[in-house]
Amino acid sequence: MKKQGFLYGSAVLIASAVIVKIIGALFRIPLANMLGGTGMGYFSAAYGIFMPVYAVSVTGLPAAAARSVSAAAARGRAGETEAVKRTALSLFGLVGLAGTAVILLGAYPLCRFVSGDVPAVPAVMAIAPSVLAGCLVSVYRGCAEGMRNMYPTAVSQVIEAAAKLIFGLALCGMCLWTAENNPELFLRITGCGRLGISASEAALPYGAAAAVLGITLSSFAGLVYMITRDRREGVRKTYSSDRLPHRNIVRIRKELLRTAVPAAVGALVINLTSLIDLVTVMRSLKTLTKTSPWIFSDLLGAGIPYSDMPNFIYGSFTGLAVTVFNLVPSVTNMFGKSMLPAAAAAKAEGDIKKLGDCSGGAVLAAALASVPAGLGISALAEPVLRTLFGGRELEISVCVNAMTVLGAAVPFVCISSAAFAVLQAADRADIPVKIMTAGAAVKLAGNLILTADPRLGVTGAAIATLLCYIFICFCSLIMLSKHGGFDGKGFFYALLKIFSCGLLCGASAFLSYSRLSEHGNIFISTAVSCGIGAIIYIISTYFSGIITKSTLKMLIS
């Protein structure tokens, strides 16, 4: 297959990411409406505990496999690509099994002593097998990406998203329906009857676990597709797959681990931000219910007892605001993923100029896409939440201020992610680890100080996230200029122009909504306002000279 250029490969991945996010919205929005803030608290607590272990096991595998395959191809060692895949599958399959065992065995102590949210145990256990499936599917994806073929990754992601939508909502709906309409059967299946727990009390924890089980099934659906495709394509491979000498296998293992381990440690650090939120936000809110109960008067008036308020607020924050916040980075991350094979090949060939072009292309593309999206989210935080979660007014009131802040953090997340991808390809995966470790410290300090303030509460966690990613972003760009051939000074001026255009985009969207909402439907007003903001952004970027022939050439090559 002909190798795909950066822009083409990015287009393939972004198209799949957009489809995945649309399907994901069709999953998360009804799920939030089904479970509410309390149920989403259990769902998010499971993710908060699961993601650090999952990140250690899975993150870095596609990059490691892609880098090894791409470097082998650049050196004319086509026969090693099959050896890389087989070695990675055996090596990281064991890692996946270990990660699954850690979550299964540690579910109760983690929920009991880390988050203080014991009802989340069923959801944590239900998501554990995803680690194994994620490890294996990541190896297959990485090998395909290393050959600059983004189709397998794109298709498998869409399959996973569709399976999650079907299985997750169906299982959650069945669980809640059974708890309400046939409580005896529900108690018998879950075993809650022996614990003296009523069906109504157990409905939300097990409803969240059922939704999480759907996610686990979806990860195995993606794995089945990748295995089936690999076996089908195997008969058409033209390169030699003869067994290599043992010393070559050892070398491949070392190459894989040299990239995967630092990336996994870095992913652990960056995913600790969700764990930091889980621990600090929940505990701060529990303290505030005792020291400043007056700030929860609206929730108390809505019938939510003090004991459930921390979980309700945390679930509203993660289930609504963080869900919207994660939409843009998950799409723009594809720029770095698509650029990684080309950057790895440039590093292997010693072509610093080409590596610099890869750095500039990935970072510029991420900035162009994320700045208007993030500032638009900040400008239209409340109408976006009301459009997506119109039936959850109480949850929206809890997290709307936090979402306004998180929108401003989006560009910094996306730019740093693109920079990290190039640094990993440039064989400096240790740098993202160091930067993210310092960033996690900023996040932890910010959470401890800001979430304890009764005037901020959960919004303090969003402010800490913004400060964390501003720090990470600027550090990553400095390191990229030193080790990735990146023109930091030139990009700084381009970034100022992009942010100026983004501010025009956000301001025009906000003003448009202010006028349209007085007379129109909220969905139409929000959609039209977003469209107006996008048009203003495109026009302003054109006249500001951000997009030139040289930048287009850098992106297309």
Structure notes:
The structure is a single chain. With 557 residues, the protein is mainly α. The protein is 84% helix and 0% strand. It contains 20 helices and no strands. Helix 2 packs antiparallel against helix 9 and helix 6 packs antiparallel against helix 8. The longest helix has 53 residues. The radius of gyration is 24 Å and the shape is globular. It starts with 5 loop residues before the first helix and ends with a helix.
Q: Would you summarize the structure shown here?
A:
With 557 residues, this protein is mainly alpha-helical.
Number of strands: 0
Series of secondary-structure elements, N-terminal to C-terminal: HHHHHHHHHHHHHHHHHHHH
What is the terminal-to-terminal distance?
17 Å
- Give the helix tally: 20
Structural class: mainly alpha
List the helices and strands and how they pair.
Blueprint: H1 6-58, H2 61-74, H3 80-115, H4 121-127, H5 130-146, H6 151-181, H7 183-190, H8 199-234, H9 246-291, H10 297-301, H11 309-325, H12 327-349, H13 352-379, H14 381-388, H15 393-425, H16 430-450, H17 458-483, H18 488-516, H19 522-544, H20 549-556
Which terms summarize this structure?
557 residues, mainly alpha, globular
